[in-house]
Amino acid sequence: MNERRTAVVVGGGIGGLAAAAALAGRGWQVRVLERAAEFGEVGAGLSLWANGTRALDTLGLGTAVRAHSAPETEAGIRDRRGRWLARTDTAELARRHGAVVMVHRATLLDILREALPQDALRAGVAVTRVRADGPQAEVVHDGGVMRADLVVGADGIRSAVRRSLWPDAPGPRYAGYTAWRTVVTPGRALQAGGESWGRGERLGLATLPDGRVYLYGVASVPAGGRSADGELAELRRRFGRWHDPIPALLDAAVEEQVMRHDIVDLPPLASFATGRAALLGDAAHAMTPNLGQGANQALEDAVTLAALLDAHPHVPDALAAYDRERRPRTQKIAARSRRIGAVAHWASPPAVAVRDAAVRLTPARSALRAMAPVAGWRPPA
Questions:
Q1: pLDDT tens-digit map of 189-223
Q2: Locate the FAD-binding domain: which residues (predicted)?
């Protein structure tokens, strides 16, 4: 094991904290720099596939996360009237690949943060420049300069590390649709989750461990828009007449808890690593949420990076191996997620009819088989 090597992780989200925990567990001295005034995140629910929970098991945190999560018991795709187009056999999915569980994003962040010593976390630090060559990397921030053997850029889709080291890399692009997210306390237990697809719109539901429901609506609209009378009113206009229990859940929603975000992703980068610096998570491969893989891929990145740093004593060699390992997989998953989103947002009636018929006619075993390349991932030895 390498001892007392130093790392600066830029970004205190899921990927950054997981990378810091993985490195600290292997004897690295780690500092996590977070631009926000405090660690934490205003968020809603997220799905952890078996690949993500296996990564958490590698960190020794899988049991804690499962204790605060809820398994998906029924899922699939319906039309706006509630007729099933495809149902996911969650029991068979769990048997083949492992269960998909729902967890609140804030809960996962708390568990990751608690795995690190408090003196490793520094909030309110804005990184402005990174130099990755030489015997040590250099991180310039608004409070001074830090030097380390390794820099991990886990600072999101608008990554300062990426801008500094890859100034010519393409920036984020709008996927063509916007999402509204909230968590609702239902009047009765949710019987079925999954997504419902309409014409250029869709809505998803999932139960969280405490019985609340994570609800998201997505619509093809111009980027940067805002609703004059509030985002909850917009959600109700778009989805208030869809099938049960959507109207009741929207009636129970609270305006102040509705978040609206344009969905953006990152065009493929030519490399995730240079010198003593590597990109991770959204900073490297931000993807649309259509496969539910954003957090899962960041967790995979984190444990793979740490394992390869063990296997290759020379940091640049380890990061080159990380790039070879992670870039093809994550970019393939990102491209697949983008294609699913494009089909889900078809709007013309003939195209929607063809899409719905194709989904309805796809054998369940084919859908399960298609999940294997994603859910079947195993951490490096």
A1: 777 789 999 999 999 999 988 889 999 999 999 99
A2: 7-336
